């Protein structure tokens, strides 16, 4: 992996960093020189694999465990982060937070049970809210927050209505915090992926579904995790210092229509 060095000396935390888009973001930020905390929930093996991949590429990373969507998850995450960071002999504090972890709920309103609703909001909305709240004590001036939302917040998408609502709330977190944190030189932005090839969407295993979703992009392909990671890495670096409160479409032009 190419190392630009543009994030050398920075510390980043990527939630859900062990696989999919989060794994690609972790690898890209580390490839740019950051020390990356790869957060994970259940998948310890995947997190360790991602850390090893980063180290194999000459980067620096460590795994941080916290199950999201449970009471006190943000406190647990930051306690683990502080502990592991100290174990790396790295200075305390944070430069880049990527709120990426998320789950989907592919159901129309008639099929959404109250427990499912609570769960998807707990993981996709409440967790990043309180993770960000506690990140503020650690974020250095000039820091970066990038929220991974979804293109589904700007189009009607009844088949995933509750999921889209969780991400629409996250979009607002970007706006309000961008204003609040501006005086500290901290930027806050959203990256909104379209159909991206990860394990979140099991229907992508069906060739017909793949073809249909790929056709939604003007490039006639699904997004790759690296397509999203490169946008996140740009927003995390100094080149994006004048960009804040933005919602960046990373869908391969799905919004352009037929
Ligand atoms: P993924 O399922 O591969 O990754 C999700 C990550 O979140 C995993 O690392 C998972 O372990 C973590 N996670 C989920 N629930 C958790 C919990 N309770 N506790 C701790 N960690 C948890 O899917 P992905 O596509 O890489 O998703 C990354 C983000 O991108 C998500 O927020 C998703 O909503 C968003 N997104 C994805 C697509 C897509 O098509 N793949 C499109 C739009 C938005």
From TrEMBL:
Keywords: Oxidoreductase. It holds the Pfam family adh_short_C2. It comes from the Bacteria. Residues 10-194 form the Ketoreductase domain. Belongs to the short-chain dehydrogenases/reductases (SDR) family. This is SDR family oxidoreductase. The lineage of its organism: Bacteria, Bacillati, Actinomycetota, Actinomycetes, Kitasatosporales.
């Amino acid at each position: 992996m190419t190392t630009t060095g543009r994030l050398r000396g920075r510390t980043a935390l990527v939630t859900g960093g062990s696989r999919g888009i989060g794994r690609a973001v972790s690898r890209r930020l580390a490839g740019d020189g950051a020390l990356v905390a790869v957060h994970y929930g259940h998948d310890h093996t995947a997190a360790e694999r991602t850390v090893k991949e980063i180290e194999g590429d000459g980067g620096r990373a460590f795994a941080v465990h916290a199950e999201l969507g449970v009471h006190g998850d943000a406190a647990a995450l930051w306690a683990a982060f502080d502990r592991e960071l100290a174990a790396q002999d790295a200075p305390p504090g944070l430069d880049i937070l990527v709120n990426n972890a998320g789950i989907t709920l592919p159901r129309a309103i008639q099929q959404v049970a109250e427990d499912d609703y609570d769960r998807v909001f707990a993981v996709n909305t409440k967790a990043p809210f309180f993770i960000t709240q506690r990140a503020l004590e650690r974020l250095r001036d000039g820091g970066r927050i990038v929220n991974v939302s979804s293109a589904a917040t700007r189009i009607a998408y009844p088949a995933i209505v509750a999921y889209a609502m969780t991400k629409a709330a996250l979009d607002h977190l970007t706006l309000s915090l961008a204003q609040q944190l501006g005086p500290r030189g901290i930027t806050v932005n959203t990256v909104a992926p379209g159909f991206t090839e990860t394990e979140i969407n099991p229907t992508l295993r069906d060739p017909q579904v793949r073809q249909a979703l790929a056709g939604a992009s003007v490039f006639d392909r699904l997004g790759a995790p690296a397509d999203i990671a490169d946008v996140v890495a740009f927003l995390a670096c100094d080149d994006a210092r004048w960009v804040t409160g933005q919602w960046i479409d990373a869908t391969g032009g799905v919004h352009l229509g037929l």
